[in-house]
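Sample intake sheet
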Amino acid sequence: MRDDPGRPPRPRRFATAPIGALAIVALAAIGFAFTIAAFYPGYMTNDAGYVYGFIKDWRFGDWQSPVMSMLWWLVDPIAPGSGSMFLLMATLYWAGFSLVALTVARRSVWLGMVVPLLALSPPAFMLLAMIWRDILFGVAWLLAVAIVYAGTDRRTAVRLAAQALAFVLLGFGILLRPTAIAAAPFLAAYLIWPTRFNGKQLALLFLPALVLGYALVHLVYYVVIDVKRENPLHSLLVFDLGGITQFSGENQFPVQWSAEETALLTSRCYNPDRWDSYWTIEPCRFVMARLERSDDVIFGTPRLVEAWRRAVFAHPRAYLRHRLTYFGHFLADSNLTLELYRADDPAKTPLARNPIFKALVALHDKLKPTVLFRAGSWLLLAIAVCALAWRRRATPSGAFAIGVTGSAVVYVMTFALVGVAGDFRYAYWAVLASLAGAGAAIAAWREARS
């Protein structure tokens, strides 16, 4: 009986030779063991310290992800402290790359064996040592797409179960990084239609997916958990007001400063690397000190929003110069990669006594000035992988490559508007998506020939 011509063709079912599958599993197991040997129990970053500390009081705010705190509380008995979260991230990381490798190996065993080696790429592998929500976010999304990719040509029950679990991980990633809302529709479209990429379907899904992503954050944060509102979005307003002040030469804050403070704001305060120059770094800590002054609070109020609106409309060129300056710095400059403030103090981090970790840090220091640790390099690679897979978008591997790299491109580009710091970790999803998508993009050409 012939297939219904109105339905897309059922994807051909590929199989991996047992010896190839065993080789890939062995490579991934070796990689996981090396990760533990090199980085256990992980490095407790400053941000992670706050996230972990919230568990004790069971009181959460929206500046750091409360969902990460709750997950940490669940896994913490495994290895109290940073060790539990590190083990979770390492497991998700290698599970994701293993599934991608095994699926690619159904098309080409040798190509599948390359994928676990790509997982050892320094920009992806070395950041696993850092306990950051950006790393957890990246590996959660990697596993989400890998599960669906692996189940594409399996029976219906398996596919549906994979898609359901993947959507849970997709939502979890949004709750970790609400700035990922704009990138989520690309992944959602792939999770729903994993056999072929269709631009029209994505266009129809995009706006509803944005609304659902926003609703998810609001519902979980402010209804279910009832977190304290700390107004993290207002850090963006402060950063933008500081940038417009710098490039317009006029004070844009809703505050009358002294002559000395005004001179600092128009000459020395602005730092495209991070908004903290107005918050915790001298000589301009006076900005946030004034905006949060108890007898006349401005930060977190409509007054700051109105000041931002007036500044943007009054000085659009200054605003664009500030945003382009920041984004150019984020993409092209050597920014913070590993947080190593306490890496040499055994009393504060066990990694200080780990010779493998020290050797990898030395390697990192040599590689950091290169294009490997530039966010712009991974943005370009994601675009290139997406372009490579475009002509094979009607195959499962092509759809996977476009879905992951397309979401990575959108995610990185959102920082042009909402970024307040230039750390390399904010491009981590682009690193994982490019590496996983590269193998699938090449496999897509073999798939199409079949």
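Comment: The two ends are 22 Å apart (CA to CA). The beta strands are 43-44, 130-131.
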